[in-house]
Specification:
By secondary structure, the protein is of the alpha+beta class. Strands 1-2-3-5-4 form a five-stranded mixed β-barrel. A hairpin with a 4-residue loop joins strand 1 and strand 2. The longest helix is centred in the C-terminal third of the chain and has 9 residues. The radius of gyration is 13 Å and the shape is globular. The two termini are 26 Å apart. Pfam families: eIF-1a. Keywords: Initiation factor, Protein biosynthesis.
């Protein structure tokens, strides 16, 4: 932990082809509905490497990488825990 009194961490940020999103609905299996920061709502797929290690729930903040060939779908690349999501909201990255 840093000795920064604000408790700010350097969080993982989306790459150029990734966007912040908030999970709005669990669709069963490894699919979720994600409201993305660019205004789109996409179908997010939870990849196998995350499926059993990282539980994704409604209202979780995630990084989604839209598919090149189908922009309305994408892969979940990262999930933030509650404190990190709160920091992202405070810093204005997501609403």
């Amino acid at each position: 932990m840093s000795d920064d009194s604000s408790g700010r961490k350097n969080l993982r940020m989306p790459d150029d082809d990734q966007v912040f999103g908030v999970v709005t609905e669990h669709l069963g299996g490894n699919h979720v509905r994600v409201r993305c920061a660019d205004g789109e709502t996409r179908l997010g797929r939870i990849p196998g490497r995350m499926k059993y290690r990282t539980w994704i729930n409604e209202d979780d903040v995630v990084i989604l990488e839209p598919w090149d060939w189908q922009d309305e779908k994408g892969n979940i690349e990262w999930r933030y825990d509650e404190q990190d999501a709160e920091q992202l909201r405070r810093e204005g990255h997501i609403d």
